[in-house]
Design goal:
By secondary structure, this protein is an alpha/beta fold. Helix content is about 45%, strand content about 15%. The structure holds nicotinamide-adenine-dinucleotide and 2'deoxy-thymidine-5'-diphospho-alpha-D-glucose.
Length: about 325
């Protein structure tokens, strides 16, 4: 099988390329190499690399030629950046998705859209989102991802494209760009920098290891039905609990924790029901609380050469814009 993996130089996409290539598939990666794309994530993995934008039909045609399937991980993915500037999110997450669907429509390739549990919006305590629930995105990021999902469903119904959607929970693991909660707090803890907790820190997220996320996407690629959506869940924890655990695992000073101004439009809780994917045979192999987070902290400890160069240059400019006033207040 020849598979086009878009966004394959990013965090989860690179784990997926490793999984497919390890299983003997021939893999083509199409990636724009934005700030989040990193060729080091693909070192030692057999693949063909095409540098380009998923919203550019010519780049997509080159990369998709001869592929039996397209799996779309490419996206602008960080909620805080979407609040600072939403345009790129619409470009990639909506228009880019449409360009890939056009390629699948033309070639008849199988298509999997890697989406997010954030499209369901805030969940009441105790509730779990199911695949047929209404979309209530809160941020420009989740609104753009919801737009991508709707494009997919329209292409299934109107053109018969053989597409499925996955909606994964908050993902953690090696090779995650240090802007999201886990890699930001772990690397800041190692550097003796503040850990900026938004608001009271009692927001709940479900934590899913990147390898389990990829196993779920692979299961849907091979066994999911066209037109169907599959949630991929994780383990529920409050942000403040995750923060405390990171302090313990890194041995950092608890005084580094700073409660700062909350994120605009911040969702309190995400939670999904993933029984539909489990019925296809998927079960997670990593537990966040029992080994998953500690192994991830260990990875960042041993791979400073991966993340230290990232935390300079354009990263510093973003960090200042996002946190300087918050940390001063
Ligand atoms: P990431 O930000 O680490 O990587 C995104 C990759 O996409 C990068 O390699 C980047 O260069 C590439 N890219 C961005 N715009 C592109 C464009 N226009 N054309 C081609 N390539 C482009 O992302 P991630 O965290 O690995 O997320 C991957 C996918 O999984 C996304 O679709 C995201 O919405 C979804 N997702 C992520 C999480 C999470 O917690 N990280 C959870 C659920 C779903
Ligand atoms: O739920 C899936 C989503 O998970 C993915 O679709 C997104 O691509 C991914 O970025 C992630 O979104 P979140 O907004 O939940 O992740 P983030 O790591 O940015 O934040 C996790 C929680 O931690 C959230 O409640 C905000 C909080 N937070 C985050 C940062 C960066 C802080 O308190 N301080 C911070 O500095």
């Amino acid at each position: 099988m020849r598979v086009l993996v878009t966004g394959g130089a990013g965090f989860i996409g690179s784990h997926f390329v490793r999984l497919l290539a390890g299983g003997g598939a021939s893999v083509v990666v199409l990636d724009k190499l934005t700030y989040a794309g990193n060729l080091a994530n693909l070192e030692g993995i057999d693949h063909v690399f095409v540098h380009g934008d998923i919203a550019d039909p010519a780049a997509v045609a080159t990369a998709a030629a001869g592929c039996d399937a397209i799996v779309n991980f490419a996206a602008e993915t960080h909620v805080d950046r979407s609040i600072l500037g939403p345009a790129e999110f619409v470009h990639t997450d909506v228009l880019g998705t449409m360009c890939l669907l056009e390629a699948a429509r033309e070639s008849g390739a199988r298509y999997v859209q890697v989406s997010t549990d954030e499209v369901y919006g805030d969940l009441e305590a105790g509730g779990r989102a199911r695949e047929g629930d209404p979309l209530r995105p809160s941020s420009p990021y989740s609104a753009a991802k919801a737009g991508g999902d709707l494009q997919v469903l329209a292409y299934v119904r109107t053109y018969g494209v053989r597409a499925s959607i996955t909606r994964g929970a908050n993902t953690y693991g090696p090779n995650q760009y240090p802007e999201k909660l886990v890699p930001l707090f772990v690397t800041n803890a190692f550097e003796g920098e503040p850990l900026p907790v938004y608001g009271d820190g009692k927001q709940v997220r479900e934590w899913l290891h990147a390898e389990d996320h990829c196993a779920g996407v692979e299961r849907v690629l091979h066994e999911g039905a066209p037109g169907e959506i599959y949630n991929i869940g994780g383990e529920d924890h409050e942000n403040i609990e995750v923060t405390r655990r990171i302090l313990e695992l890194t041995g950092a000073d608890p005084a580094l924790v700073r409660h700062v101004e909350d994120r605009a439009g911040h969702d309190r809780r995400y939670a999904v029901d993933d029984s539909k994917l489990r019925a296809l045979g998927w079960t997670p192999e990593h537990s966040f609380g029992e080994g998953g987070l500690s192994a991830t902290v260990e990875w960042y400890h041993e791979n400073r050469a991966w993340w230290e160069p990232i935390k300079s240059g354009v990263y510093r400019a973003y960090y200042e814009e996002q946190y300087a006033n918050r940390l001063k207040a």
